[in-house]
Specification:
The complex is a heterodimer of chains A (349) and B (589). Chain A is mainly alpha-helical. Chain A has one domain. In chain A, a hairpin with a 2-residue loop joins strand 1 and strand 2. Chain A has 15 helices and two strands. Chain B is of the alpha/beta class and 589 residues long. Chain B has 22 helices and 14 strands. Chain B has a six-stranded mixed beta sheet, with helices on both faces. A four-stranded antiparallel beta sheet of chain B has the order 6-5-8-9, with helices on one face. A two-stranded antiparallel ribbon of chain B has the order 1-4. In chain B, strand 5 and strand 6 form a beta hairpin. The radius of gyration of chain B is 29 Å and the shape is elongated. In chain B, 51% of the residues are buried. Classes of the chains: A mainly alpha (349), B alpha/beta (589). Chains A and B meet through helix 7, helix 12, helix 14 and helix 15 of A and helix 5, helix 7, helix 9 and helix 11 of B.
Chain lengths: 349, 589
Amino acid sequence: MDFQIAAFLAVDGIANGAIYVLIALGTVLIFSVTRVLFVPFGDIAAFSALTLAMIQLGRLPGTVLLLVLLASIALALELVSLARHRKWRAMPWAVLYYGILPTLPALAAWLLLGATLAVGWQMLLALALVLPIAPLLDRIAFRPLADASVLVLLIVSVAVHFAISGLALLFFGPEGFRTEPLTRAMFDIGGIPVGAQTVLMVAAAAAFSGLLYLYFETTISGKALRATASNRVGARIVGIRPGRTGTFAYLLASLLGGVSGLLIGPVTTLYYDSGFLIGLKAFVGAVMGGLTSYPLTALGAVVIGLLESYASFFSSQLKETLVFASLIPILIWRSVSSLQVEEEEEDIS
Amino acid sequence: MRSQRLLRAFPFLAAVLLALAPLVLSPFTVTLMNYIGIGAIVALGLVLLTGFGGLTSFGQAAFVGIGAYATAYVTTALGLPAIAGLVLSLAATGAVALFLGAITLRLGGHFLPLSTIAWGIAIYFLFANIPGLGAYDGVSGIPPIVLAGVSLQADGAIYYLIWALLAAGMWGIANLLDSREGRAIRSLRGGATMLASLGVDLFRVRLAIFLIAALLAGLAGWLYAHMLRFISPSPFEMRPSIEFLFMAMAGGATSIYGAVIGSALVILLKNTIQDILPHLSSNATQLEIVVFAVLLILLLQYARGGVISLVRRFLPVKLSLPMAAADGLPTRTMPQPGIALLRLDTIVRRFGGLVAVNRVSFEMKSGEIMGLIGPNGAGKSTLFNLVTGALKSNSGQITFLGRDISRAPQRAIAKLGMARTFQHVKLRPAMTLIDNTLIGAYPRTTSGFLRCLLRLDRAEDARATRSALDALTFVGLGDKAMELAGNLPLGNQRVLEIARALAADPILIVLDEPAAGLRKAEKLALAAQLRAIQARGVSILLVEHDMDFVMGLCDRIVVLEFGSMLMEGSPAEVRASARVQEAYLGGVA
């Protein structure tokens, strides 16, 4: 491997890493606010790319049906729970939040089917279609388990992944998609050809990470999220509603996931189940940050991107094995460096 | 009593029925039974790991795969007999489990399960890409198991081996759960702090159950490879791992029978789904996992106890006391009364900028009851945690029985003869009083996991039971030994914590606010009990808010204020001190 190839792989790795950064940040965000390790998060990214691809092909995106299905289940659950507590007045709001709002993008996609849209509008529509998925899954799968241990939440999270990725096969079909690249321009940086798409990916990852930082540091709702993350009971006492903050964390994280999907769509062919591996690799990066530190998480995600890029050069077949095996030194390092904190978990049964 | 006898006869009845099954059932049903047995062996490991130990693994199928591939390689490429394959299967799964456990089990609860996802995938891709292991095509031509000259090639023959091994596994796990190590395993979930204070090495216990679960999976892999005589990578990826977890959860992860029930449920359900789904969609295998995932979510939302918890309601409750020997465990010799027992020398503990304990020094003599008092925020609890080893001091030295324990782990301090209770009672509510007390005797007993699995620990356990019963009787709870700790009123729960501390045969008992929340009569009874403990030569250090209680009970009192020592003296001296009055009541005008 000469310098040329090494540099080329590095560029490729950083571009991949940029994707993992966004997903890893979202994973840490959701985990810290809701204690749920949201495994289906990679699926959200894949769905946004697939949705954009299907819009560009003039087909009805599978997300439309998925949204309608999830919204109906969530709305039914919510109405039954309200009826049981005799909160009739809250019902119109439930219909608005769980029935109408999440299905608006689906309606828009259906009405705009076949219309020629500018790329920007196509992307906005794709984002709007994936945003409600995670909050709806939260309502359906995790809210009824608000008191459960992290372990139970994790098992449910893995189950949710398999449920929606199985459904995705029905809605998206088995074939792979690739979206139109936003730009085909090429730069030459010190003799290394760098695609403008790559630059775009890195810039977008940096911009969204920066926005997330500003949001946490400067806005009230960002501080409410941090408060909920560090102490749920305390946050509740000062008037922050954990359920609502949770929904907001899911929306925010979905935005990160959706954007990363839009960025990766033009460079990789994605299938209905591609999200799992993407999400897991982002998770390996997040482990470097101990699932708490955002800067370390971002760094870890970039490292995983680079590792994957170099691993695929040495052995494309064992690429996945090498990437996941890299978790082992990371865990050894964390195991040695971090003080053991015993968490008290309540019984699961 | 008749139902008790029925319960005891159940395993024999089940064994007879299972032995006759292949003679009457159709070959297809026998094959299904084989799959159920193999699944149950894996699920049994998860019952131990998840249901009792509060850990989980999404990579059990990968362990099955390691076991299957190990034996496939040895028997096909090297031509060795299947028994050699078994040795390698267990050695390989055991080695991988020990390595993974060693690096993840010291970290927080979610690191292990998530790493098992990642490494499960890594192993799958490894199987699928190594040409020596047949890559995606797998390994074929695996010979059948030959036992004592009999080939177990037919499904009806290997059936007996599968179910015999499953029965042996269940026997071992049942033994283990009903032992010294088992009581620690059953306390892992939610009782970590308590276990650590009693001298239990949590890491060792967690590693052991992770290893046992992996070995069971490896054993299942060995059986699977020799039953099918052909293996490929796909049964060892993530999805089957989820199915194994579903088995344990569906059957009921808090009972070893749950593993068998769950495995039967899942295999039969899978069989039904495979009959129906192809009529509905062309993507049947994908939809199968959707059905399982949705069922698993519903199960965790509405019936976390699984099938067994629905059945258990109708089963008779075990009432008989465990076997107790005539003599208790050997006791240690108490130090001479009046010698230096515990010495604190200029102890400092900071939390960031806050100095919680500032240059505190005092000495406690053996046979004393010493009180530690002070207004809120005086640093009593911090000092308490420093003495018991739950926290480490920034500087200064703590000596117990002449040994420096400033840097010693809680475990070592507990073994030296220091036992503690908790301000917020830490008991195992779903365990009996006798089991709760027996946990206290953990550091006095030595039977390891292997002895417990094989039931070689009975003599020692009977002696421990005697000691625990004596401790319970001493505190006045002897007649309630088989009740559940969660059903006791708070006053009795505190007393039970003292019994648990006594079961450790301590030299010094450290009590954290023992009178908090007790009524007047209960406080009097508690004081009398503590004096009786003192009469046995045991020293007592207590942190307390209740002045009457402390003044009436203690020989000497240390008063703390804002982290520093205010004074040390007899109850009368403390009562007379103007400085103490000022600290408690504000300046006297």
